[in-house]
TrEMBL record, chain B:
NCBIfam families: ant_ant_sig
Domain STAS, first and last residues per copy: 1-101
Family: Belongs to the anti-sigma-factor antagonist family.
CDD domains reported in the protein's UniProt record: STAS_anti-anti-sigma_factors
Gene3D superfamilies in the record: STAS domain
Transmembrane segments: none
Organism in which the protein naturally occurs: Azospirillum melinis
InterPro entries: Anti-sigma_ant (IPR003658), STAS_dom (IPR002645), STAS_dom_sf (IPR036513)
Protein name stated in the entry: Anti-sigma factor antagonist
Length: 265, 101
């Protein structure tokens, strides 16, 4: 039931154990109604056919075959707070068991996204994340553009250089563009690489100065990288510098597999 | 991203529309090919309808410039606004490519 009646005491207890988001409902565009009902029941969530206007947080399941990518912008806006692509190799019976850990992770953040590279590649995630963030804290003008760029660059790095392992365009030549193009196509066609995951978490907290601070972490499953000085002459390599100029904090962790950005809102 | 080419007397004007990101590699390859094929010396990229560009998009524009240089053609960016103008400025592209309003 989506009634938004979270008791104060429950909320405080949730925060003490790191639970920020208490999901009330589950949406799964493209999934048959009886399967959605069973899955939602097993996860103790309300099955929903479309996002209602209420305020209780919802999770959306995205199918990996592209058929269920939400065309509706509403599925990227509140009250939806998590976007999860279930693991592919699951039978109907144990999907709920395998989804539960994703939802537990999602509950620790204000926004959570866990998708395969194949799905994320087609979604313009930077813009989607910006829309989800700015629906919770209005952003305008240059700051809005800048944060969208930083999110987009971090997602692109995680997908292209991280999960797909495609090297940046080093020389300024059409051949190098062709090589980049071919590598990207080949690796997206590789089910192992295309099945690697990208995880995005976003938290909004009060900052000392009374404003708010957004912390975004983006994690990939690639080989990582060592941040360092870059060559100035190539076609690639500006993304991290742009992020560094825009973000109010930038940390690279886990050998380059996780980037944490902070933005004053 | 989409584009259209208009061949005028003195210059070819290529108008880019939408969002130019790393995902537009195939279109940029086609575009560079088309710019190389028309006979005009001045190749102007009209960015006034471009809404968003990322670092890979900037990199691909630099590749286009380099290829035009090899073909002894002028390559000019024109009409950037909003986010696109801002990124071109931050990345200091004006040092490398002529930018017109």
């Amino acid at each position: 039931m989506i009634d938004g009646t979270i008791q104060g005491t429950t909320q405080e207890a949730d925060q003490a154990v790191g639970c920020r988001t208490r999901f009330a409902g589950l949406l799964a565009p493209g999934l048959a109604a009886d399967r959605l009902n069973r899955l939602a029941l097993a996860l103790r969530l309300s099955p929903l056919l479309q996002a209602p206007a209420g305020s209780a947080p919802l999770a959306v399941l995205l199918a990996g075959d592209g058929s269920a990518v939400p065309e509706s912008d509403a599925l990227w806006l509140p009250p939806v707070a998590a976007w999860i692509e279930p693991p592919a190799d699951t039978g109907a019976s144990d999907t709920a068991d395998r989804l539960a850990p994703f939802l537990a992770e999602a509950a620790k953040s204000d926004l959570y996204l866990n998708l395969t590279t194949a799905t994320a590649h087609d979604l313009q995630l930077g813009g989607r994340l910006l829309a989800a963030l700015s629906a919770r804290h209005p952003l305008e003008g240059d700051r809005r553009d800048d944060i969208e760029l930083a999110l987009h660059e971090a997602v692109s790095n995680a997908l292209v250089h991280g999960n797909l392992g495609v090297a940046g365009m080093k020389e300024l030549s059409a051949q190098e563009l062709e090589r980049f193009s071919r590598d990207l196509g080949d690796r997206l066609a590789d089910p192992v690489l295309a099945g690697r995951r990208i995880v995005v978490t976003l938290r909004i907290d009060p900052a000392e100065d009374g404003r708010r601070l957004a912390t975004v972490e983006i994690t990939d499953e690639g080989a990582g990288f060592t941040p360092g000085p870059r060559a100035n002459s190539g076609a690639s390599g500006r993304g991290l510098d742009l992020i560094g100029n825009i973000a109010d904090g930038l940390t690279i962790e886990d050998g380059g597999r996780r980037i944490r950005m902070r933005f004053r809102l | 991203m989409d584009y259209g080419i208009e061949v005028r007397d003195q210059e070819a004007v290529i108008r880019l529309r939408g969002r130019l990101t790393f995902n537009d590699h195939a279109k940029l390859r086609a575009l560079i090919g088309e710019m190389g094929q028309n006979k005009l010396k001045r190749q102007v990229l009209d960015l006034s309808s471009l809404e968003f560009v990322d670092s890979a998009g900037i990199g691909m524009l630099l590749i286009a410039r380099e290829e035009m240089d090899r073909a002894a053609k002028q390559f000019i960016l024109r009409g950037a606004a909003g986010q696109v103008k801002r990124v071109l400025t931050v990345a200091q592209i004006a040092k490398i490519v002529p930018i017109e309003d």
